[in-house]
Amino acid sequence: MKVTIVGIKPTRFKPKDSDREINGQSVFFEYTDKNTIGLQTDKCFLPASRMLEVIPDMPCDATISYNKYGKVEDIFVER
């Protein structure tokens, strides 16, 4: 899916039912959708092992691919 990344927020939290800490990034993006007037916005979570590098020239165009379970598989930033 073609998107425009508009923000990246470091995220760190502990789920209520676990002592394990979750570390990663929330990636905020916008895109066009044929059923939406204007732009649609959304966010996805990337774990620390797959975090994006700092993108100094945001907003920037990117492609997000998802796996068969609906989880982000990869984000390719167009530079």
In short:
With 79 residues, the chain is mostly beta strands.
Topology:
Layout: E1 2-13, E2 22-31, E3 40-47, E4 60-66, E5 72-77
Antiparallel strand pairs: 1-2, 1-4, 2-3, 4-5
Query: Can you tell me the overall shape?
Result: globular
The total of helices stands at 0
Kindly name the structural category: mainly beta
Low-confidence runs: none
Terminal CA distance reads: 17 Å
Domain tally: 1
Q: Name the beta content range.
A: over 45%
Task: Write a structural description.
The structure is a single chain. This protein has one domain (2-77). Helix content is 0%, strand content 54%. It contains no helices and five strands. The protein has strands at residues 2-13, 22-31, 40-47, 60-66, 72-77. It is mainly β. The chain has a five-stranded antiparallel β-sheet, with no helix packed on it. Strand 4 and strand 5 (72-77) form a beta hairpin.
Keywords for this entry:
79 residues, 5-stranded antiparallel beta sheet, 0% helix, 5 strands, mainly beta
